[in-house]
Amino acid sequence: MNIELTLHETRVIGCLIEKEITTPEQYPLSLNALTNACNQRSNREPVLDLDEVTVQQVLDSLVKKYFVNEHGGFGSRVPKFQHRFCNSNYGTLKFTPQELGVVCELFLRGPQTPGELRSHTARLCRFGDVTEVEAVLQQLAEREDGPFVVRLPREPGRRESRYAHLFSGEIAQGAEHEDVAVRAEASLATVERLAQLEQRIAALEAEVAALKQQGADPAAS
User: Which of 17, 50, 110, 157 is most buried (most C-beta within 10 Å)?
Assistant: First the structure.
């Protein structure tokens, strides 16, 4: 696979796929509607704050890559946009409804466990249980025209591994563990600094108490 998309590009494509499935009566999307979809506070990770100028620049990039086109219907004064990223007459990339639902959610929310994907894709497609999600993830990881997803190393404290899409390039497998280790080391350093400060405060309080005692007892001086 030679597709490599930016975060903003995956967000735009993910939103177009999502709205095509969930609100077909409002699809294709105007620039304003697409910008609002990109900046939703729910069902988005990370939460973005894009303006229309930025979204238009992303659309221009995707149009050049033939992943989006402008749709102008009869009598429509506002340009609207639709994806042709997959399952269209313009390309060879084809997904089943379940594969499309998984890819869309990975575009919108980032890495997720099979259980999270089953819950989050409920609006887009149907999964009977988590094993069906795992089977679809396996298909996406092993497709000849892929791979499209990768299983990440299981994080400490998690029972399930998360999966990430590969449409933005290869994932550094050790990056997440390194990040956890860095956070843990920083937390330990903070605890040690607090302990040192508490010791210094205790010593200063003892010194102040001793000085007060000397001031109250003339014989001690």
Answer: 17
